[in-house]
Amino acid sequence: MSYTIQDYKKGQPRWCPGCGDHAFLASLYKAMAEIGVPPHETAVISGIGCSSRLPYYVNTYAMQTIHGRAAAIATGVKVVNPKLTIWQISGDGDGLAIGGNHFIHAMRRNIDLNMILLNNRIYGLTKGQYSPTSPRGFVSKSSPYGTVEDPFRPAELCFGARGHFFARAVANDSPHTVEILKAAYEHKGAAVCEILQNCMIFNNGAYDPIYTREGRSKNAIYVEHGKPLVFGENSEYGLVQEGFGLKVVKIGENGVTIDDILVHDAHAEDNTLQLKLAMMDNEHGFPVALGVIRDVDAPTYDDCVNAQIEEVKAAKRYHNFEELLNTQDTWEVK
Prior knowledge:
The N and C termini lie far apart (62 Å). The mean pLDDT is 95. With 334 residues, the chain is an alpha/beta fold. The protein has helices at 20-35, 70-80, 92-98, 100-109, 154-160, 174-186, 213-219, 272-278, 301-315, 321-325, and strands spanning 42-46, 61-64, 85-91, 114-119, 165-170, 191-196, 220-223, 230-231, 237-242, 245-250, 288-295. Helices cover 29% and strands 18% of the residues. Helix 3 (92-98) packs across helix 4 (100-109). It has an eight-stranded mixed beta sheet with strand order 2-1-3-4-6-5-11-7, with helices on both faces. Strands 8-9-10 form a three-stranded antiparallel beta sheet.
């Protein structure tokens, strides 16, 4: 049976006009329809925050939990009912502050969750405090003279927790967002998709260099497994390895040819180059990497738990309560 976007829609979203949550939700509807998992076999689970209202707007099983606990609840749902497709929705505050511990352990355990991190670098629902991803020096209601903290970088946190899938997209780049969501679904294990978006009220302009199509053509690089790492309005620039780092070069200058450009390997077990790609930023003269940066197969927690249960059951002498009672000595009283 095929499904349409309308099959997954519900309610009227209550977000500020221009919020990236609107664009992401439209992309999620489209991805769900193209993937084709029935609504009754899908669950959307969130924590607390602007983006965490999303479960109210999907016609699936859905649950808004408490602050920072989306990954914990999603883990329980997946282990108890492994047939469900789980979309976990968190903001950067919900997912990486109070929920940070659950985030890293979901990675480490490799639970089969599609973990969406909507990153606007601000606490929007509580009216503009700096978040774990706000840059050093960021001025906000809770840091009027600029925060003196260094931010979490989600990719670095994911890779450090032994994550096997990491992808990134810009919220208003719908076709590309749909593609990474579909890739996350196809990956079996914890799949993190970082969605970059502005908060129109408290942090508008956070991603201005890459928030338009023209900006992305100059300041972003779309990575694709097996393809050369080239970017620019005419694909005139590329990435090469220099020492232990990466370097931007112009193809055709100083003897550089397309054959010198690195080819992206999203499936490499060693995440060294994948992490370097994920950590690039415009401030240091690099393009921002968009697309599936890492996608490596590994055993999933939920599969291993259920396999272990079946193995233990098969080895037991009893399989129900009556058989359990008869495993020891018995007496018949007359």
